[in-house]
Amino acid sequence: MTSEAYARARAACEAVKSRTDFRPRAALVLGSGLGAFADSLDVADAIPYSEIDGFPTSSVPGHAGRLVLGTLGGVPLAVLQGRVHVYEGYSPSEAVIPVRAAGLLGAETLILTNASGAINPDFAAGDLALIEDHILHNVASPLAGANDDGFGTRFPDMSETYSKKLRTLARAAAAKLGLRLPGGVYIQTAGPQFETPAEIRAFRTLGADLVGMSTAIEAIAARHMGLAVLGISCVSNAAAGLSGAPLSHGEVQEAANAAAGRFKALLKAVISEL
Ligand code: HPA
């Protein structure tokens, strides 16, 4: 199964290479409601996931499902406009195929973005936040199964999953723009149900500040391949039990829309420094 996922990432890379000479230096995954950022690129090509051999296709509203190749601030980028999630029925190793394919295409840096719920009360809905580390909860490793040494070592180190250098760069960019950018630990759950208040209290005790249903497995796959990773989260709501209100996907999209301008400004500033 896992060897098959590695083969699919290679096939996806070859499919893209045979279609275009464009080679990205960095890759960007756009999370829930954040897909419009791809409009900022000088687009060279946009390929629906369904046309890329080996790619899984996304079924979530707010996730377009296109690989957009283009430049921003002179930096050649592969933008994954929409991701697939474990809750859609994909295995973790399938869900990371797009990120692996971007690494094989030549990306040395991976910027992961997502929407999250705030467990830590110092984070407010509408904040952009810096992912400093993660906890993978109740989701299997994307590296489970036979290891492909062509991608990376069997037991990769995860002591600096989110690059210190890129975090410093992102903080400096946010400060220059006058944006708040609190940092914290993100916990990835399996979903698709939102958490219970008891789970959120447990996650707080574990040391998590933000909760969501993606990202950590992609960061693991990228670090396995040696990419430098940056994680930016758009906080869409206070986590379950903290505000008294029920949670909905609509609110996730609304928060992403409200943060779109700041998100774009921050990403542009970071990318132009890569
Ligand atoms: N929980 C899990 N995933 C999320 C949340 C949440 O509260 N908000 C946005 N994505």
Structural class computed from helices and strand pairing: alpha/beta
CATH superfamily grouping? Nucleoside phosphorylase domain
Cα-atom radius of gyration: 17 Å
Oligomer: single chain
Bound molecules: hypoxanthine
Please describe what this structure looks like:
The protein is α/β, with parallel strands linked by helices. It has one domain: Rossmann fold, CATH 3.40.50.1580. 31% of the residues lie in helices and 24% in strands. Helix 1 (2-19) crosses helix 3 and helix 4 (164-177) packs across helix 7 (249-271). The longest helix has 23 residues, at 249-271. The radius of gyration is 17 Å and the shape is globular.
Q: Helix and strand layout, with pairings?
A:
Layout (H helix, E strand, L loop, with lengths): L1 H18 L6 E5 L11 E7 L17 E7 L2 E7 L10 H4 L1 H8 L4 E10 L9 E9 L27 H14 L5 E6 L8 H10 L3 E3 L3 H9 L3 E11 L10 H23 L3
Parallel strand pairs: 1-4, 1-5, 5-9, 6-7, 7-8
Antiparallel strand pairs: 2-3, 3-4, 5-8, 6-9
Helix pairs in contact: 1-3, 4-7
Features:
five-stranded mixed β-barrel; 7 helices; 274 residues; single chain; alpha/beta; globular; Rossmann fold; binds hypoxanthine
Summarize the structure.
The chain is α/β, with parallel strands linked by helices and 274 residues long. The chain has helices spanning 2-19, 92-95, 97-104, 164-177, 197-206, 216-224, 249-271, and strands spanning 26-30, 42-48, 66-72, 75-81, 109-118, 128-136, 183-188, 210-212, 228-238. The chain has one domain (3-272): Rossmann fold, CATH 3.40.50.1580.
